[in-house]
Amino acid sequence: MNSTDTILDLAAQVGKSLQAKGLILATAESCTGGGVAQAITEIAGSTAWFDCGFVTYSNASKTEMLDVSAALIAQMGSVSEEVAAAMATGALGASNAHLAVSTTGIAGPTGAVPGKPVGTVCFGWANADTVHTERLVFTGDRRAVREQTVIHALQGLLRFID
């Protein structure tokens, strides 16, 4: 199975899980540029379980659209589990969703900073009660990092829903 098929299969599984539980999803994405939302909306009928997606590539947009604290970004950096958590909870607050997923990272080929090499991605999954975050480092070129990020975001959603 190629990565596109994997992504679409995961998105369909997410949709089935959300629909079975009567839940609505929102996305908040930086390094994936809407890739998670694109995968979700490839699935026919996703309007029943997908509310909206925020593409907040700049720090200012994270603050303006998702109410992520500029001080948090300055202190922790935009690629941090803390900012990923704030993005996910911000997406919940700015939408009609029951749960949200966020991605923020360094897809490359440039952008590495000390302690955060190219391929570093932070994820957030949130509902009204819980926020779960992860930090991973993927390998490959920009496209590969972004694809791996979308796959992991969807896999994490499946775990978070259950």
Automatic annotation (TrEMBL):
Coiled coil: none annotated. Keywords: Hydrolase. GO terms for molecular function: hydrolase activity. InterPro entries: CinA-like_C (IPR036653), CinA_C (IPR008136). Pfam families: CinA. It comes from the Bacteria. Residues 9-160 form the CinA C-terminal domain. This is Nicotinamide-nucleotide amidohydrolase family protein. It comes from Duganella vulcania. The lineage of its organism: Bacteria, Pseudomonadati, Pseudomonadota, Betaproteobacteria, Burkholderiales.
